[in-house]
Design a protein that fits this description.
The protein is α+β, with helices and mostly antiparallel strands. Helices cover about 40% and strands about 20% of the residues. It contains 16 helices and 14 strands.
């Protein structure tokens, strides 16, 4: 007997439900609501782009609606109430604190020069005295940014224009010896990990590497619902061989169930206790860095929706706009909108909007208008007066 079969629509609905879509938004989101979102997702990807809102702030908004941004600040950096910490997950991410022990193998690898950008690995070999000096300065004088430690910020063409102090801090961060205590704007303020993270987390035993991989794959499966081996591996950027071994072990113990999804063309896995695959009511503008969307091949498989972020594409060659965000309506991505916040003028600007070819213009217009009003309220801006759709692409 072969594996259980799912239609593409059933897979999509399961994936949306486990991500937290289709639930009624709370009138006033609380710390408990935010905690449920981050616990469900495991991580929030970070990015410096701020034309609308920081990347890590958007996934809670897409699920909860306008929430007090101080809730996320508290969860990320308040020493007494934090539930998240910064580290390398999918990319640079805010990650649930309980997953920190399962990522210590990555920190150990980094200290050995493995898994780093090649320039940073080389820096770790060639500039160990600089690294040790920066670590000693933090230990002696307390939290600091790269600019605090090196106001001159001598630049070097290698390491992305970083100065040596910044490179040393990033090596230490990747190695788990320092972490982000707080942010100053978007600038990291570093401190020793042993001072910044709760003692209760640091005291937890370090799982063997194989067990750590199973923990991370299980979290990825819970966040994705239905996923290929590649989807599960890429959620935390895990080594393919180790990830495949962990998947096989989780299948054997019953945590993952092999399935076949119509049209996927590759084996897939279903998380334990999957939600209903029935119709759902969802409506959200979704960030390109949202866990629902950050793997573009998966987006195409799930939704039949081709998405590329165009921030690095010359303006004349862009199809949709600089920073387009897809619109989810029901179980379908029905359009995309290029947004920017003009904060001095207190305006939310729609630079462009596009419907998918099969979308209903009236339904999309109504949903998009409501979501834009919610974003404007969340960001303290005036909503756009009207929406003009470009021709379907």
């Amino acid at each position: 007997m072969g594996p259980r079969a799912l239609s593409a629509l059933e897979a999509r609905r399961i994936a949306l439900r486990v991500q937290g879509f289709g639930r009624a938004r709370p009138p006033t989101p609380s710390p408990r609501h935010l905690d449920a979102v981050t616990r469900r997702l495991g991580l929030l990807q970070m990015d410096s782009i701020n034309v609308l809102a920081r990347a890590h702030a958007m996934p809670p908004f897409s699920r909860l609606g306008p929430y007090d941004k101080a809730l996320l600040e508290t969860a990320s950096y308040d020493p007494r109430r934090r539930t998240l910490f910064e580290y390398w997950g999918h990319e640079a991410s805010l990650i649930r604190l309980e997953l920190q022990p399962a990522l210590r193998w990555r920190m150990e690898d980094a200290r050995a020069g493995l898994g780093l950008y090649s320039g940073l690995a080389r820096f770790g070999l060639e500039r160990r005295a600089v690294i040790d000096g920066v670590l000693a300065a933090l230990a002696a004088h307390g939290p600091a940014s790269a600019r605090d430690l090196d106001p001159g910020q001598k630049r070097n063409g290698a390491w992305w224009g970083w100065g040596e102090t910044k490179a040393a801090l990033e090596w230490l961060f990747w190695g788990g010896l320092v972490t982000t205590l707080r942010r100053r704007g978007f600038e990291r303020v570093y401190d020793l990990t042993e001072r910044a993270l709760p003692a209760s987390v640091l005291a937890r035993p370090t799982p063997p590497r194989a067990e750590a991989l199973r923990i991370l794959i299980t979290q990825a499966a819970s966040a994705l619902g239905v996923a290929t081996a590649g989807d599960l591996r890429l959620y935390f950027r895990l080594p393919a061989t180790d990830a495949n071994r962990a998947i096989a072990e989780l299948v054997e113990e019953g945590t993952l169930q092999p399935i076949a999804v119509a049209g996927w063309g590759q084996p897939a896995y279903l998380s334990a206790d999957p939600p209903s695959s029935g119709p759902l009511r969802a409506q959200a503008i979704v960030s390109p860095f949202d866990p629902l969307l950050f793997e573009r091949a998966r987006v195409e498989r799930l939704f039949g929706f081709t998405y590329r972020i165009e921030i690095y594409v010359p303006a004349a060659k862009r199809q949709y706009g600089y920073y387009t965000l897809p619109l989810l309506l029901g179980d379908t991505l029905v359009g995309r909108v290029d947004l920017r916040a003009e904060r001095k003028a207190r305006r939310l600007v729609v630079a462009s909007a596009h419907l998918e070819k099969t979308a209903n213009r009236e339904a999309v217009t109504a949903a998009l208008s409501l979501e834009l009003a919610e974003i404007a309220r969340w960001q303290g801006l005036d909503p756009p007066a009207e929406i003009a759709f470009g021709a379907p692409k």
